[in-house]
Amino acid sequence: MDSRTSRAGKTMTGTTLSRSTAGTLPKHGRSRTGILAVLAGFALAIGLPAAAVAQQTQTEEMERREKVLSLLPNNAAKRIFGTTPGPANLEARAIGSFARGCVAGAKALPVDGETWQVMRLSRNRNWGHPQLISLIEKLARRAPKEAGWPGLLVGDISQPRGGPMLTGHASHQIGLDADLWLTPMPDRRLTRTERETMSATNLVRSDWMDVDPGLYSKSHLALIRLAAREKTVTRIFVNPAIKVALCRDAGAERDWLSKVRPMWGHNYHFHIRIACPAGDATCVDQPLPQDEDGCGTELKDWLKKQYAAMHKPKPPPGPKRDPKPPAKFWTLDDLPDECREVAVSK
Predict the structure, then answer these.
(1) pTM (two decimals)
(2) Is-contact 128 93, C-beta < 8 A?
(3) Is the dihedral of CA 294, 158, 163, 67 positive or negative?
């Protein structure tokens, strides 16, 4: 985590874990900076982007992009989709799977709405399938009255034509995924500089076993529940520690909890995913989760893995391992055939 996160340096102790997780792991912790560094390394080790862990400012993002571009061949799909400034002028379609595909006819979420503001404008990732954009606008309108949430700060959705991103996400490729910050919208318009530099709120406690009680509120639960109850939403990803709080505080009406799944990172934002739009024959959907609320064994396992990753002892000094061979870069041949048309569309 970067140094801009407010109120994140303190160590929270004495907070009771939920019944399903209390007593399963040691309670000692580390500083959040050290823990996030370990979690970032673990995310990379299992193929997840470090951007899922830390907030990147415009300067940091540009530096990362320059480094990636310097290594990419000209025919790399990341280069093609990551540097195209506008959408494909085609009928709206989600093509392929969430982590291997593209989007035609994407629509941009306006950077300002009455109850939303788009963050990190320089990334140009406020594009999505029109159905997803409509859903975000709908959630933003409903959130103040129904969740006590003043408005949405919207993070990454997709690139103008979707596809693999230069930095960050493995998914978000077909215009059906969006990140919504766990920070309520302020009662004023943020400046462009603020949108590029301010950090979202890290909602997770310093031991990563539960939420930070000084930051988490029932409005967080109400907002996530509001999104989960939308029929088109099939998944919401949150950090395992946030899922602990949702399981504990949901009350008797728990029908929506099965859609909320634990996932590495996702401590600054929650990630919504909608179903493939009707008629998009080449869109590969995910079935709805079948377990009742997802608050049992799976959640315990996620917490154990996250804790183990962050408290893994440092390797003893000695010769470094041989470097890994360079990663294979996807080309258009590695994406659905329809993505070639999307890539070259004027």
Answers:
(1) 0.84
(2) no
(3) negative
